[in-house]
Amino acid sequence: IIVDGMGMEYPGIVTVGSIYNTGPSNSQELKNMVIHEIAHQWFYGIVSNDPYSDAWLDEGFAVFAASLFKLSKLKETEDYNSMYRPDPNLELPVNLPLNQYESNMSSYVYGKSARKLWELFKDNGEVKEAEKFLKIYYHFYKYKEIDTKEFVRFVKYYFDLKDDTLFEGWLELEK
Ligand SMILES: [Zn+2]
Q: In angstroms, what is the span from residue 26 Cα to ligand 1's centroid?
């Protein structure tokens, strides 16, 4: 962990310090950044994806895994119901190529995507089931590259879904 420069993940190493053009972060922000960048060692480092066309897959999963870590290991309390409510003004899907977002790319790629991942478990055992899902997803896709289409295939199989309604409003399926 190198505490200098911009928050960024690399294989086996992370840098933390600031987010883009903002100044140095306070210690709580630094801690959160360390957790986020380390989560990328799994989601980006081991389960790979195209970071331009499908950025949500590593960023959304890193945010999702980091919040699971905070809930179960750091025993931070957060109301489950507050974790999956996306901002209704964010109408775009989360899996557009980066050039198709304007200034609010991170609200989609980091924010809405992680909230939608949490929503998968709202009637399905919440945190415990989310951990189980993440573990199976990781073991299934480690050292492989995943894209939105494969994610959808996995989720439909995992939850035994008959159609694509679960993905409406957040994933563009005809890419
Ligand atoms: Zn990230």
A: 18
